[in-house]
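Most newcomers find our protein records easier to grasp once they have seen one. A learned vocabulary of local backbone shapes supplies the integers on the structure line. An example says more than a description, so a record of this kind follows:
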Amino acid sequence: MLDTSYKKMTLDDYILAHSEPEGEYLHRLWRATNIYTVHGRMASGHLQGRVLKMLVKMLRPKNILEVGTFSGYSAICLAEGLEEGGKLYTFEINDEMEDFTRPWIEGSAVADKIEFIIGNAIELAPKLGVSFDMAFVDGDKRTYIETYNMLLPLMPSGGIILADNTLWDGHVVDHAYDNDKQTHGIEAFNDMVASDDRVEQVMLPLRDGLTIIRKK
């Protein structure tokens, strides 16, 4: 008999059912993030988390920089893809998140691959003396350009930047948000990257927009 159970799913449910499971630990972190933090939807979640892990597996970076740890969901996903000896340096500027996030990172199976730092990545990351093969940018949208300009000199040719939220709930094409500083930050960043001949880029309509940028 033909299985029609999938016909009762939403398209999002169908996609997740045919992607790698997020795992019990990440599922608990996702639930806790949505229960105990004000902006739980900022966490990457199942699909984007699996995409991040897959990209790390494919590109095999040695060092990754994450700007904007939030609850640690994306950090754990990125670290899951790292090979032995790989390291993720993740920065969270909001020190009020530390008490929530640090136990989740330290309790994960990839804790030894993650260095969680409270502070401003724009100021502190260059002081690490590390060359980053990959970066995931998911911090303050108003400072995406500053973050980008900080990152490029720290990356070799072929280095990959993943910029999150580049569609910003569709606000980038909605004139009602022309005076919103977060939207303006994303728009200015998107325009700059699109015209930057130092890189090549593609914007994907994944979740809230994910732009993949490769340094030439």
